[in-house]
Amino acid sequence: MKIIVSAGGTGGHLYPALALVEYIKSQDREAQFLFVGTTDRLESKVVPERGYDYRGLHVKGFVGNPIQKLKNGFIFIKSLSQSQKILKEFQPDIVIGFGGYPSASIVLAASRMGIKTMIHEQNSIIGLTNKILIKRVDKIICCYQKALEVFPKEKTVLLGNPRASVVSQQKLYDIHDIYGIHKERKTVVIVMGSLGSSSVNQVMKEAMRIMQYDDYDVVYVTGQNYYESMKKELSDLNSSIHLVNYIEDMPSLIASCDLIVSRAGATTLAEITALGCASLLIPSPYVVANHQEYNAKELVDAHAARWILEKDLNAHDFVKQIRYLLGHEDILNGMKKNARQLGKPKACQEIYEEMMKTLGRK
Predict the structure, then answer these.
(1) How many helices (H) and strands (E) does the chain have?
(2) Considering only CA atoms, which of 262, 246, 247, 267 is closest in space to residue 200?
(3) DSSP summary character for residue 7
(4) Per-residue pLDDT of the chain (362 residues; tens, 9 = 90+)
(5) How far out from the chain centre does Cα 109 lie?
(6) In whole angstroms, what is the distance from residue 340 CA to residue 283 CA?
(7) What span, in angstroms and rounded, lies between the C-alpha atoms of 148 and 336?
């Protein structure tokens, strides 16, 4: 079986794609893969490093002023011929798009050539690329009820994010052992993504000075861009506050902490729900179509999380919320249970089965 996978621009598109490919490899050792993405974004570096064949398309998103959008439109049209050439050379059985503008080109070209196609939508709000492809693809996989209600019912299934399968099966470590925290101490993890958030960091500077006197430990991931300045400014905090710049093994911290404070990106929430973690979400307001707020709302409505919108975030109310949640074990346990019910630990298996059905092989 030959499969083209396209995921462009961000880790939120790329890492679910890689998770699914790894699962397919475990089921079919003869399967051949070709990744198609941009020439200069994250996937152009990560995918070859993982040992997969890769082709980059010169394509731009439909952003900017009207003239720039028009230029990018012509670039997109040109990328369709590039995509057709790739498809003729590789001759895939199916093309799977995980979002990002390169997906629009290769999936659309495949559809026009009569090749089976599938798209995966990680967020509750449908991205522009997948909006373009809705009517052209054979199968749609989504992760949220809100998206399921918008996509065509006859070809859409809610199966979740492949990252959920990965984290539910990997070996996990205890946060207390990682940071030398006493086993009886409750722990809070605060993380605003790998790069961090300047606006949230400003609030956390004050919050950390209050939280250091409480009876729990805090692991605060400042983000790589802000670590040195935050470490210097908060150098006088006591040992209950652990400042780190980046976490390699985020699933272990999610699984073993009492509460995580995070953004509401699709991959993060897939991991939180798969591992059954209580969470306090601060959705990023700086994303397309405010999709993180809608992602978070699905968890909040299911009583699997609580949230604070960034516009309402201040140190005193934030600490008050943390203290309240840690002081009510019944609420935390309820959130963990509800989060686990939303998790999709069999996402890879079920997406693979749906792919095989689309190919008429099951």
Answers:
(1) 16, 13
(2) 262
(3) -
(4) 999 999 977 778 899 999 999 999 999 999 999 999 888 878 888 999 999 999 988 776 656 677 766 776 667 778 788 999 999 999 999 999 998 878 889 999 999 999 999 999 999 999 888 998 999 999 999 999 999 999 999 999 999 999 999 999 999 999 999 999 999 999 999 999 877 889 999 999 999 999 999 999 999 999 888 999 999 999 999 999 999 998 989 999 999 999 999 999 999 999 999 999 999 999 999 988 899 999 999 999 999 999 999 999 999 999 999 999 999 999 999 999 999 999 999 999 999 999 999 999 87
(5) 26
(6) 20
(7) 24
- Token pair belonging to 332: 């935390």
Nearest alpha carbon to residue 174 among 254, 252, 278 = 252
Eight-class DSSP state of 310: G
- Residues 357 and 292: their CA atoms lie apart, in Å, by 31
Place of tokens 């809610």: 158
Amino acid letter at 265?
G
Q: Is 353 helix (H, G, I), strand (E, B) or coil?
A: helix
Tokens 């959705």, located at residue: 283
Strand pairing partners for 140?
119, 156
Q: Which tokens sit at 121?
A: 């939508």
- Residues 62 and 19: their CA atoms lie apart, in Å, by 28
Single-letter residue type at 77: I
Contact 226, 202 (CB under 8 A): no
CA distances from 325 to 148, 259, 280, 305, 318 (A): 31, 8, 9, 11, 11
Q: How far is CA 75 from the centre of its chain?
A: 28
Q: What span, in angstroms and rounded, lies between the C-alpha atoms of 281 and 30? A: 42
The letter for the amino acid at 119 is I
Q: What is the pTM of this model?
A: 0.88
CA angle 27, 103, 42 (to 5 degrees): 85
